């Protein structure tokens, strides 16, 4: 289940300060699911407030699908999503485009600091 590079920006597109400020009002309303897992990964979904989607810059969206692109870590953190290290945005729940799906390897250990 690799990430399709066509479904994300070629490199992280960081938010401008003015764009970030428009999202601040929604940060406390982001909902994080409990974690669930299979044999290889743990998963969780993050539910953004629906009105937040209207404030996110258009180049974060996949115009063909009408959903957010798969976001780089720098992008989803800039939106105000806060999670521990190792999570990767791997899918958008198309029927409900405000729900972002994340995964990371089971027993993930962050790289040791040098």
Structure characteristics:
about 110 residues; alpha+beta; Cyclin-Dependent Kinase Subunit Type 2; five-stranded antiparallel sheet; about 25% strand; two-stranded antiparallel sheet; 2 helices
Could you please describe the fold and organization of this structure?
The protein is α+β, with helices and mostly antiparallel strands and 114 residues long. It has a domain at 34-105: Cyclin-dependent kinase, regulatory subunit (Cyclin-Dependent Kinase Subunit Type 2, 2-Layer Sandwich). It is built from two helices and seven strands. It has helices spanning 17-23, 73-78, and strands at 31-32, 36-37, 41-47, 61-62, 67-68, 88-92, 99-105. The strands form two sheets. Strands 1, 2, 3, 6 and 7 form a five-stranded antiparallel β-sheet that branches. It has a two-stranded antiparallel sheet with strand order 4-5. A hairpin with a 3-residue loop joins strand 2 (36-37) and strand 3. The radius of gyration is 14 Å and the shape is globular. The model has no long low-confidence stretch (mean pLDDT 91).
